């Protein structure tokens, strides 16, 4: 019985080339395209491709923002390639801040695992949505909108966030303006922020122009 | 200056009807469609619509599987409607098991927050991918494939999972077969499981037929 | 007139490289990605790429399930690559059964061409939907849900099915559990099926572990 | 055991409102939107919603084209709403013709069930792809391209076609030009077909203007 | 001949309810959803629904930014609902500036119709892309990234922009920060901009908090 | 401060391989796939990749249709690859005509920049939508439907069109029929246009068969 059953279904799987089936673990050595990275040869895929330990260690928060973002996007975690999901870890020491930023290609869902976090976003109508989240609370940040997270408690805070894309992107407002070579004159023209303020922040963050 | 600037942009926002902008918080009282629920009137949307506390409390694991799944899909958390993401909380007491199941409409990403979890999935080629995950580890389960989670440690385990859809669906294999009115004769014909086994499991889980 | 008209439109088509236009016949020798296979050079595409005769011959039903599934997914029929559609042929001898299975990546539409077929699926709420279909009847199986087809008549049955993806995937429940190396202990833990039953079915279907 | 198991999962399904789960059978009495019709109340959905007998009867081919198209789009078959798939039946008497047409919103896959069919399509580069298909052969027509089917055998021909959308649309070239109120002057200007020819075909097909 | 031909195809169009066909003109009086507004009754749709004159008149640039943005999103131009495209008109007097902003839900393509425009955007890697565009030049701004347009010539500039969504959204950085009730303390914490600067810009733009 | 801040975020960008971030400029030398061309190495991308001057020059309208279409699809303008948008320029001398055509893969939005244009399309129900557009007016043509543009004024007309895809395709009806090798007999059978008319137009446009 075993042999006969196998025969009938063998035709489904005895193909002469690797089939695109169920998943597409990223192969960083082949070309990528608008939908993500090329797929690793399925014959070489193992369980290890679908798990990632890079978020198990706390990020180093001994810095000016007293916070750390550790991404597990497709570029770090090849198993999520093409699956429409990815993750990151947020560590916030007391007074830690994840500065105002956007994810151009995804909505974000945050879950607080330790501590207390004040989070917020602004919509296209300039409405501000603020929440103080306790352990176990979740919050969603719609795609592409400016948002932030602040440790509003007295102890270390830890959150995991997930994204509706394997490649959400991350544009940190201050870095876009003040850690880039965005010409100061253009920044002042397009933001109304004084040149002196721009130059000061560029000096701190490493921008030029 | 303030007045003039406002005037020029006023035209953008002085619309006579509510615009579909940035998000679509679910309105459970209006019709839903293939893309999700109708949108709540934006004028009534507040920060509370984007946060959810339903995952902050541990699920009750005093049951036969010693585990609990608490969903935060669009039906529970209206803020995720239309955003392509949702979440759930998994509580597993020692020996706790989330039985074999699929999410027909989404891939899943799991992060272990407490304890140790053995998780796995099977692909279309009948390959089994198993991983033992420690605190902070993440794992992804490609869309629609059978998968499970087991507490493989000695203490309570806690995980948060997120999905690539606001409405991932959840089909628990045992419930589909043995907690439904799926006729026993059809189950035996389509699974090769003996009628006696089917009847026994139906008696336990509450199935009929 | 002919010459002038040609001149004006020539600019549209005198490109120095092959354009992605209208279709993307699979090139199995190039990398594939999350959206499908790379495209065959359009200059080499012919009408033969868009037709397939692999479903013209009845599958061999001289086996334990008295049935055969013959796929025309992108891996067999390169013309459907990227077009969001594919097909398969179902042959069912009297008493033939297509065992319980899912397509993780597509909805399915079946049309009965010969004989009588009893088909059904189970949804996330454990509701079972059963229909007996006569020649010419069609039925749809929503994406990712467990479903089956049985020859419920006295003669050979033939059906053609189509899918809402060029690569729907196919997970046969019994094969996932009993024709794989899914450890018996994990199967019993995650399905409540006795180890003895699991071992017996593994022996029949060729599973290990 | 039965009771306890039920309790733990009850929280998943004891929602106070109908959830968008797994499918969205069309409710023609509620508003429709870009993604399809509103969903019928899941509590009223039965197996009958997922099956359709409208393609079981041969279309009437006693007409000038000696052919008939019988659609099973979402408007006829509410079960396919939102599932990205639909179907139609083609009956072609000897010499029957399905005139040149497009489906603006879907690719099409045809399977010949009886007789012989000559089918073809034209791409953006004005390349013509022609195939003569025998019983059991399949052919795919990429989205939006002009295509046709002709009975090229001596007997009645029957084909079933499926589409990569629940609402593929159908634009028959001759009807768009000659069964509409498209002003004759504009037709001649935009097609180079003589006014006399246009008027003659309008007289036959019922066009005006 | 005319009558018979009509009969055979009548079955396609003699449906008892309005079908979702080809387009979905927005009905602002019915519920909207994640995919856009509900569809206007097709029987009431006319050519006027697909055209819009709101961009024919120059916006008023007698203001502090010497510029005006006039949108033709689905909320203004109901014909684009569900079609994945929309538009806007940019008028820039000499020295006019469209301040730094994002479209959370769409990529943008700009064409210069009059004058000279300097445009730029910043990517997730803090790279700045700047171009000076002359009449007839086009430029694309990838989805969700900060960008701006400045009149870099000596005369009035006019540009038309289109978007890859009927509802691209528009988040103007300065308005999000300084024309909202975003608490000053949170702005300083999440942007490193001094409170004094924040307060000054809020006074100008009308922000509170 | 500058150094420390940089350190904490460095982990985000110190990846060992180029990440798919924000955009995917087409690399015409690598394979393409269903979602578009492969991505150019981000390290080599400059502002020039996102701008295009090919639409700045008027097309040559000294031809039989007194019109010209100049495309800026992904094949001409690699910066739009994967961004879901593209453009084209329409030049129409007095009496100029863009013949009846479809874009199989995109909706189109037209803006009149100079002159007066009469445009129209036909839907699946054979309804014709006609509008005379003045300077600054916009019109949308739903995906895949037959449409045209005619200079209805006394002077040169100029329009820019954009598409909801980087690769909309372009099927010109007359070219598909009469500039191809579509056999005359099949054309007459599938369009009811007399063979003599077909042959005459083929002679003009260069068709064979």
Of all chain pairs, the largest interface belongs to: A-B, 56 and 56 residues
The amount of helix of chain A comes to 10-25%
What fold name stands as the CATH topology of the largest domain in chain A? Answer: Jelly Rolls
Shape of chain A: globular
Mean pLDDT of chain A: 92
Q: How large is the count of helical segments of chain A?
A: 4
Top CATH class of the largest domain in chain A: Mainly Beta
Query: What structural category characterises the helix and strand content of chain A?
Result: alpha+beta
Order of helices and strands of chain A: HEEEEEEEEEEEEEHHH
List its traits.
homohexamer, 209 residues, alpha+beta, Jelly Rolls, 2 domains, 4 helices, 13 strands, 30% strand, Germin_Mn-BS (chains A, B, C, D, E, F), secreted (chains A, B, C, D, E, F), Cupin_1 (chains A, B, C, D, E, F), Germin-like protein (chains A, B, C, D, E, F), manganese (chains A, B, C, D, E, F)
Topology, element by element:
Six copies of one chain form a homohexamer.
Chain A lengths: L1 H12 L18 E2 L2 E2 L13 E2 L14 E6 L13 E7 L4 E6 L5 E7 L2 E6 L5 E6 L4 E4 L5 E5 L5 E7 L7 E2 H6 L5 H8 L3 H11 L4
Antiparallel strand pairs in A: 1-2, 4-5, 5-12, 6-11, 6-13, 7-10, 7-12, 8-9, 8-11
Structure description:
Six copies of one chain form a homohexamer. Chain A has 209 residues and is α+β, with helices and mostly antiparallel strands. Chain A contains four helices and 13 strands. Chain A has helices spanning 2-13, 173-178, 184-191, 195-205, and strands at residues 32-33, 36-37, 51-52, 67-72, 86-92, 97-102, 108-114, 117-122, 128-133, 138-141, 147-151, 157-163, 171-172. A five-stranded antiparallel beta sheet of chain A has the order 4-5-12-7-10, with no helix packed on it. Chain A has a five-stranded antiparallel beta sheet with strand order 9-8-11-6-13. In chain A, strands 1-2 form a two-stranded antiparallel ribbon. In chain A, β8 (117-122) and β9 (128-133) form a beta hairpin. Chain A is globular. The N and C termini of chain A lie far apart (75 Å). In chain A, 67% of the residues are buried. At the A-B interface, β3, β5, β7, β9 and β10 of A face β3, β5, β7, β9 and β10 of B.
